Amino acid sequence: MRLNLEKCVFGVSGGKFLGFMLSARGIEANPDKCMAIVNMVSPQNLKEVQKLAGRLTALSRFLPCLAEIAKPIVGLLRKVKKFEWSIGCEEAFQTLKERLGSPPVLSKPDPEADMVVYLCVSSDAISAILIQEKEEQQPIYFISRMLQKAETRYQLLEKVALGLVHTARRLRQYFQTHRVIIQTDCPIAKVLRKPELAGRMMAWSIELSEFDISFEPRGPIKSQYLVDFINELQPKGHFASDLWTMHVDGSSNSQGSGAGIILEGPTRVTLEQSLRFAFKASNNQAEYEALLAGLRLAQEIGARRLICWTDSKVVAEQVNDNFQVKDTNLLKYYHLFQRMRNAFDEVQVKHTPRADQLARLATSTRKPGHLRTTLHLDLATPSVTSTECMTVEEPTRTWITEIIDFLEQGKEPSDPSAAKKLRTQAAKYSIVGGDLYRRGFSVPLLKCLDSVQADYVLREIHEGICGFHSRGRTLAAKVLRAGYYWPTLKDDCAKFVKHCISCQRHGNLIHVSAEELHGISSPWPFAMWGMDILGQFPIAKGQCKFLLVVVDYFTKWVEAEPLANITAANVQKFLWKNIITRFGIPHALVTDNGLQFTDQKLNRFIQDLGIKHRFTSVEHPQSNGQAEAANKVILTELKKRLGDAKGAWAEELLEVLWAYRCTPQSTTRETPFRLTYGTDAMIPVEVGEPT
Questions:
Q1: E-strand stretches of 466-545
Q2: What is the rounded CA–CA span in Å between residue 46 and residue 41?
Q3: What's the CATH fold of domain 18-101?
Q4: Which of 3, 135, 436, 680 is most buried, by CB atoms within 10 Å?
Q5: How far apart are CA 150 and CA 594, in angstroms?
């Protein structure tokens, strides 16, 4: 290593480094850069304003709420007809000079201590300060930026989330190596953890899930710089948990039923939610559902005092005990409301005559992604659905219990390292209806299972009605696609397959090395099919002893039918019934040179439809390898299912085909069902263990 002595300094306690002054106290702003602004005269033209903006940007980490203070100056950089240095610009300029006269000293981060972030927002800017708690609150970094024109129209809650996301992006190195505590009275934590988020809030929630972030109410302020930071945006950026206002509206029409909710906090905190009911509901029932959903939302946010406005006079008078509830179904809603009301310090329900604008948000035919609401939720069952209660033993604690306790009650292990690990892990999970869900990649949410539930899911997917005795990796992929998760999923799948007697008895014994896949020219789904015949099988019901199999080269979709005789007429009937009338006329059909395929009548039928009939080489059956591979898979699965009952192969065929179509293929990484219909099939395990 070579060093330039002219650029090296040894044995000093401080000095200039990368444009900053480093000392034992911390990181200080370069005095030369500060004086360059302090000694500036007021800009007289656009070029001088640009010079000032560049100098301020270089010192932005030392200036709290820079974007908010410099807003009049930055406005001159936009396209204006005439340059005018206003009184507001001069006041902002003098404020910046005053602060640069004694800029704050930024502290060196302690790698063992937690980071604390304070957020402030205004109508045009977002600001943040990163500090650490030592003897006093020592600033580490100030961040501030102006909002874009579209961002200024965000709700206040979305602006706070945007400020957090922007801070995490700018200070990624700190967020990745420290636990970060966000101190705010805004209910942003409970909103970001809700799984029914829509649009940008969902994207931000996923982006922030990689960091160890926790939220706490804003505590006492011990630093003068922090006082200035908070006071700069205090009227618009501070939150207090006092009286909340809620507007609810439910309606039922020919397109369905739904509800809309607007929850407004004491300082312009607004949260919108639209609900679509997946059940038939009367108008009064929809109004009650809207009111109850609003109470649940307010309770999750942490509101204690609430005023509810509803356009249903019946509901408002019933819950206030002015009208008698005669309908038995509405009486259930009334009692449920009274129980939920006790969770608040104060709940007032008032009637307001207005249109059904809120409810139409949910009952309209627009997709949830097109709604302006922050949250969108589909309610599958009514809130008063009665369920049978049974006395059961209290379940033992599982890996799920620890995460739920942390998310709901903030319980952490006493060991600091275990607590840090739990906080990082819990950021990837959400609670929906009392169940724990993990954010996934292929599907939005994965239901978390304990050992008993996981054992049922594995058995049902591997050897159930739609079960396919696949290998461990494929089994794990099917479990994830079905919407389930637990930490030891891959290991459990591999172990389960090793203990499956049918898989071990009829498993493939591979003695040759794997070959690279060969390209197949199939330009669109169902353009080219490969056909082959399996047999003879033991005689089954209907004297069937042969199996006619056809597979699509593009989607890997398989059709098969047991036959008593393999004649050309049966092949023609199979083609018409299972291929042409269901998937359209194919471009090509690949078969071997069997008599039933070379029949003149069959070939005339194929040629009249414009189908190209391609024959494989006599000595090389692998030239129709797609059909041969499908034959092998079907035959192996039949052996694993039947055991000694070999005569029942025809009855088991439909379940084998169903399982094959719902299993991801190693070549496409998708299931034939999804490639054919654009979505995964509903399989029995999702009925036994709903996701």
A1: 484-485, 528-535
A2: 14
A3: Alpha-Beta Plaits (3.30.70)
A4: 436
A5: 68
Residue 239, number of CB atoms within 10 A of its CB: 20
140-196 confidence digits (pLDDT tens): 888 888 888 888 888 778 888 898 999 999 999 988 888 888 887 777 777 777 666
Answer whether 647's CB lies under 8 Å from 539's CB: yes
Q: DSSP secondary structure string, 593-633?
A: S-HHHH-HHHHHHHHHTT-EEEE--TT-GGGGHHHHHHHHH
Domain spans of the chain, in order of start: 18-101, 115-237, 243-379, 399-505, 528-686
Please state the CATH superfamily assignment of the domain spanning residues 528-686 in this structure.
Ribonuclease H-like superfamily/Ribonuclease H (3.30.420.10)
The whole-angstrom separation of Cα 669 and Cα 675 is 10
Class of domain 243-379: alpha beta
**Domain 115-237 carries which CATH code?**
3.30.420.10
Backbone φ and ψ for 69, nearest 5 degrees, come out as -70, -45
Phi first, then psi: what are they for 229, rounded to 5°?
A: -65, -45
| Tokens 């939720």 belong to residue | 377
In this structure, the dihedral spanned by the alpha carbons of residues 364, 367, 373 and 378, taken in order and rounded to 10 degrees, is: 80
| Exposure b/e, 522-561, CB count within 10 A at least 16 = b | beebbbbbbbbbbeebeebeeebbbbbbbbbbbbbbbbbb
Q: Which two tokens stand for residue 129?
A: 């300060």
3-state secondary structure of 311: coil
Higher pLDDT, 625 or 354: 625
Residues 139 and 40: their CA atoms lie apart, in Å, by 27
Contacts of 125 (CB under 8 A, 6+ apart): 65, 67, 68, 71, 144, 145, 146, 147
pLDDT of 65 over the 90 cut: no
Report residue 573's pLDDT band, with 50, 70 and 90 as the boundaries.
very high
Give CA separation, 582 vs 336, 555, 576, 642, in Å.
51, 15, 9, 30
Strands 546-552 and 558-563: antiparallel
What's the burial of 364, exposed, middle or buried (CB within 10 Å: 0-12/13-18/19+)? middle
Q: Could you check whether 18-101 and 243-379 share the same CATH topology? A: no
- CA dist 180 and 211 (Å) reads 8
Determine contact, residues 422/413, Cβ cutoff 8 Å.
Answer: yes
Using CA atoms, how far residue 121 sits from 59, 168, 322, 505, 597, in Å, is 21, 16, 44, 66, 75
pLDDT tens readout for residues 234-277? 444 444 446 888 888 887 777 778 888 888 877 666 777 888 88
Q: What are the backbone angles phi and psi of residue 518, rounded to the nearest 5°?
A: -100, 145
